[in-house]
Amino acid sequence: xxxxxxxxxxxxxxxxxxxxxxxxxxxxxxxxxxxxxxxxxxxxxxxxxxxxxxxxxxxxxxxxxxxxxxxxxxxxxxxxxxxxxxxxxxxxxxxxxxxxxxxxxxxxxxxxxxxxxxxxxxxxxxxxxxxxxxxxxxxxxxxxxxxxxxxxxxxxxxxxxxxxxxxxxxxxxxxxxxxxxxxxxxxxxxxxxxxxxxxxxxxxxxxxxxxxxxxxxxxxxxxxxxxxxxxxxxxxxxxxxxxxxxxxxxxxxxxxxxxxxxxxxxxxxxxxxxxxxxxxxxxxxxxxxxxxxxxxxxxxxxxxxxxxxxxxxxx
Length: 315
Description:
This protein has 315 residues and is of the alpha/beta class. The chain is 20% helix and 33% strand. Residues 228-315 form the 2Fe-2S ferredoxin-type domain.
């Protein structure tokens, strides 16, 4: 485990029946570079690392807060978080940011769906502090699920803040929504996969706006993707390691004792991005953009594989 800081759970409070806030304080030193849209890796146990967006932090990096929705049928991370007791000490990695606000003058619309609101709230705070004009749309099933509604109201955004509850307002008409926004609008959206897909589709169909997004679950793939075995060369030692078709690079390297920093293991967080010195990459992540993938000099080893027979990794 690399690049982590030990932190203590200093505060735990429920924002709704399902969503709990966790405030961690650094024990030694401080975290660096908190900014709107960033996330941290929370090490909850052996092979249990989860990524959570930071919605609030101290400017000196001594503490930060994440909000986690309890998912009873999830992969176990949220349940482990909700079981944490005050005072517990754990390792925290990051922060890193794959969902940063872009420097531009285009109109901004922030959209948070459910627990995906956490990075959206931090963006709203940053934009308000900078004096920018922007709008926020908080999409939830019902008002009881709007855990961040009171926090948004405290920002005093007036008519630029919109709470949309499906039970009262019906499902959002994205065609009408996109047509009502400025043609050059920049959308920042985080939420369930169908929500992201719908906005991307409608924006493309009407040729209006640019969509920036963050997923918190890997998108479904169509059909089975065939995996083939290949060889990884460790540049520092020259060691050749065979990667079988049914294992990832990350899994094999972990089994062999390599100290690899990783988080989601789903190609979403970027924790395991590793430089590639030679070979052709089969990119399967949702972190690197098209330009970064085309450059072919780094990869997410938790999901991506090789198109060539050999990859040389800068490890």
